[in-house]
Specification:
Blueprint: H1 3-29, H2 33-43, H3 49-69, H4 73-92, H5 105-120, H6 127-130, H7 137-159, H8 167-171
């Protein structure tokens, strides 16, 4: 990896990592605090909204820190992809593509950027590289995507119980 490549990957890791940390902290300390985030998750059909809120905080902040450090990069990317899959499927999909209509555009960009980063690897300016840990290419992408899909499927299978429309709702 050239010096330019290493800096480019570091920039992607830094922006993605900081974005995830700030996003997680906002779920905890922003607007409605953890209680508001819990209500929002419950409103999406996820059981145990408070648990979901805290899981999102720890996942987002943890993944962000790992990305900043360049540590366990495919797993950090998997965490971001999984969070974005859940958000895209439950909160944004029905609104279409565009973010200004609360669509899935933003979560798609973060998820695909994470997958690409897992494939590229963390670069030479990372703890993974310092520890001579090299999991990138198809293996890095496969690990990130596989773990993300499995985690998302597990979360949805265990906790997602959307409200079923009543006969009156279906007639409207």
């Amino acid at each position: 990896m050239t010096g330019v490549d290493a800096v480019a990957v570091l920039l992607v890791r830094a922006v993605l990592g900081i974005t995830m940390i700030v996003h997680g902290v906002n779920h905890w300390r922003g607007g409605g605090h953890i209680e508001g985030t819990a209500r929002w998750f419950s409103g999406l059909g996820l059981k145990y909204g408070r648990l979901q809120a805290w899981m999102s905080v720890f996942t987002e902040v943890g993944a962000g820190v790992l990305l900043l450090l360049g540590l366990a990069t495919p797993l950090a990317c998997a965490a971001v992809i999984s969070v974005m899959l859940v958000a895209g499927l439950l909160a944004h999909r029905r609104n279409g593509f565009f973010v200004f209509k609360d669509g899935y555009e933003y979560v798609l960009v973060l998820a695909v950027t994470s997958l690409a980063l897992a494939m590229l690897g963390p670069g030479s300016l990372s703890i993974d590289a310092a520890g001579d840990i090299e999991v990138n290419g198809w293996a890095g992408g496969g690990i990130a995507l596989g773990v993300a899909v499995a985690a998302t499927a597990g979360l949805l299978a265990l906790f997602w119980r959307p409200e079923r429309p009543t006969s009156a709702d279906e007639a409207a």
